[in-house]
Amino acid sequence: MARYFTKDHEWLDVDGDTATVGITSYAQEQLGDIVFVETPEAGKSVSQGDDAAVVESVKAASDVYAPASGTVSEGNAALADDPALVNTDPEGEGWFFKMTLSDAGQVSAMMDEAAYKDYVAGL
Amino acid sequence: MSGINASGWKPEMARIEGDAPTTSTGNRALMLEEPLIFEIGSSNTTGVDFADAPTHTSRLGGLERTAEMGIPGLSEAETVRHYTRLSRQNYAIDLGLFPLGSCTMKHNPRLNEKIARMPGFADIHPLQPQDTVQGALGVIDQLAHWLITLTGMTSVAMSPKAGAHGELCGILCIKAALDARGEDRPVVLVPESAHGTNPATAAFAGYKVENIPATPEGRVDLAALKARLGPDIAAVMITNPNTCGLFEPEMKAISDAVHAVGGFVYCDGANFNAIVGRVRPGDLGVDAMHINLHKTFSTPHGGGGPGSGPVVLSEALAPFAPLPFVHRDGGAWRLVEEENVGEDLPHSFGRMTAFHGQMGMFTRALAYIMSHGTDGLKQVAEDAVLNANYVLRSLEDVLDAPFGGSGPCMHEALFSDKGFAEGFTTLDLAKGLIDEGYHPMTMYFPLVVHGAMLIEPTETESKAALDQFIAAMRHVAGQAKAGDEALKGAPYYAPRRRLDETLAARKPILAWAEPAVASGSGNYEKPGGG
User: Fold this and answer.
1) B-chain residue closest to A49, CA distance
2) If you placed Cys at B85, which of B34, B290, B337, B495 could pair as Cys (CB 3.0 to 4.6 Å)?
3) Could you tell me which residues belong to the region Disordered (chain B) (predicted)?
């Protein structure tokens, strides 16, 4: 399993053709206290860059994009009752959704952890 | 006036010291605590004395209500005191400068109120015979004429009730025009510098929304926009002046490019105050724009009254405007509605409201326009822009102004939280500003600026009022930059200390619940959550 990052501050753990998607620790810090998360339903088909989920904090509401094309297999139901998981464990328990990738090659253009760290440091 | 306090002595302002005794009531002299109306009302009390209802046989077949309605009863004196006490805990434009950016919180002239309360305007009903309300219909028509003239457009839909409602009206006109051409264009482009309601409106109308990035100067990236234009684009929604408080100088080029691919241009007119009397959006190629009468034309906001968002339309969109509207035949006015629309507006997309619009706002707005005249309205825009630039230049040495280098701003000045001490935020500064006696500015918007503070003073404020506000801003900005821990505890002097906004959003209590009496103990429980 390998972890990739996008310029939209999302992470995805890729295992074969399945991926788990969430927002990075940097993203949750920027948003502040998360108060609401809307995750996609299983079976939803998304193209890379489509709106896939919504995250709302005390400061702002933002779309979470599909980092790659594919089909959503599961939304994180725990976030409905406890959106604070995104603040406390953004890159673990606070995952947003799991998906089956239709084009696993798309991840090759994404950043690894070191490259993402450099990217954030440059912001 | 010698002899009357010639020494200039003033009694010392009250201070709330750390060791000040608490009072038995919770009141602090003129700062009065006030429970909810449900907590003080009683179903045994009433403010009116009705004669007993005559006995009658219910015709509801057993469906009549038997339980109490639960409406709190108070005497007139108790009611007046309740709301007066609550109003004293509020901040209002009648109390002081209200710097909320993009909201144009200007003074509501009392002349407007006087006109709106004239019985011929205040005591009429929308279903009255039209020959008994000719004056009111004339007001709608005359205001419509002013709005068309000031914007250089072809027609105006008067019925939308607020800004976002007006946006929806404009987008529905665009949709109807595209339907009439037999075209299915699924995408609406919205620049980052547009108002947040714009993408919501487009999505609500069924369009896919795509962002257009801003340039480092805070304007629409024209090259990025042009690159995205094509036959799938229904419209571009632009806010001008934009939410960075900047004029979009490429507006005409943007409109031309959008029209060249068959799309329409929606302009969010929320910031019209900065250009009224100076710029006609019709000359910039705009096809539809809402006008917030409660911003530019001084009618009250929010709790002070309803909004009103008439939408001016270009020649291309005018045939699709919603019903009803007022038509003048010689010396008389008549309402054009579904029954008689045939010859006047056969392609209207339908109706957005039950009646003709916010009559009380129409009278106020027309009073404002006529009392200012064309020269006065031009000066409104000039003074609003001058005041905003005075604020911008008076604060840019203590607060980071991300677009301060790109020339003058329009009606609002934008700052970021760059330079604040570690751990100090825009929210902290805003809470400190409350203690200084001001309603905070718009915060964390626009999103393109970190920790944004958007300040719109409007033309209402004098230089003296601006100087006081600037001094207060410099003080709290200094605290935020120095990392003054006292700021973290603010507000100290508001009716309530800092509220837990996160808890309120995560676990909102949306309705009052009667406290349950725990059996045997007689203790009250707090109203439940959820």
Assistant:
1) B210
2) B34
3) 1-26
A116 in a domain, yes or no? no
Alpha-carbon Rg for chain B in angstroms: 27
Average pLDDT estimate for B301-320:
88
Q: Which of B429-434's residues contact partners 24+ apart within 8 Å by CB, and which partners? A: B429/B453, B429/B476, B429/B477, B429/B479, B429/B480, B429/B487, B431/B487, B431/B490, B431/B491, B431/B498, B432/B475, B432/B476, B432/B479, B432/B480, B432/B487, B432/B490, B432/B491, B433/B472, B433/B473, B433/B476, B434/B490, B434/B491, B434/B493, B434/B494
Plot region of A16 (φ>0 → left; ψ -120 to 50 → alpha; else → beta):
left
What does pLDDT average to over chain B? 91
pTM: 0.89
Architecture of domain B374-494: Alpha-Beta Complex (3.90)
Substitution target from A59, A65, A87 for chain B, most B beta carbons within 10 A = A59
Q: Residue B501 and residue A60: Cβ atoms within 8 Å? A: no
pLDDT at B470 over 50: yes
Distance from CA of A94 to the nearest CA of B (A): 16
**To which residue do tokens 């753990």 refer?**
A13
Phi, psi of B87 (to 5 degrees): -65, -25
Residue A47 lies in a domain: yes
User: Has residue A108 been placed in a domain?
Assistant: no
| Cα–Cα distance, B276 to B374 (Å, whole number) | 9
Which residue ranges make up each domain of chain B?
152-357, 374-494
Per-residue pLDDT of chain A (123 residues; tens, 9 = 90+): 899 999 999 999 999 999 999 999 999 999 999 999 999 999 999 999 988 999 999 888 888 999 999 999 999 999 999 999 999 999 999 999 999 999 988 999 999 999 999 999 998
More confident call, B55 vs B271: B271
pLDDT band at B338 (very low <50, low <70, confident <90, very high): confident
- One-letter amino acid identity for B362? F
CATH of the domain at A93: 2.40.50.100
Chain A interface mutation, best of B197, B447, B506, B507, highest count of A Cβ atoms under 10 Å: B506
Structure tokens at A25: 């620790």
ipTM confidence: 0.80
What mean pLDDT comes out for the span B399-405? 95
Q: Which CATH number fits domain B152-357: 3.90.470.20, 3.40.640.10, 3.40.630.30, 3.40.50.720?
A: 3.40.640.10
Would residue A112 count as lying in a domain? no
Does A58 contact B501 at a Cβ distance shorter than 8 Å? yes
Q: Region B467-495: what's the mean pLDDT?
A: 96
Quick one: how many helices (H) and strands (E) in chain B? Answer: 14, 12
More confident residue, A99 or B507: A99
Tell me the pLDDT tens digit for each residue of B198-217: 999 999 999 999 999 889 88
Q: Please tell me the total count of domains within chain A.
A: 1
Are both B152-357 and B374-494 of the same fold?
no
Contact B289, B323 (CB under 8 A): no
Provide the pLDDT confidence category of residue B410 given band limits of 50, 70 and 90: very high
Q: Are strands B187-191 and B233-239 parallel, antiparallel or unpaired?
A: parallel
CA distance A72 to B246: 41
Arithmetic mean of pLDDT, B468-495: 96
The minimum CA-CA distance between B203 and chain A, rounded to whole Å, is 12
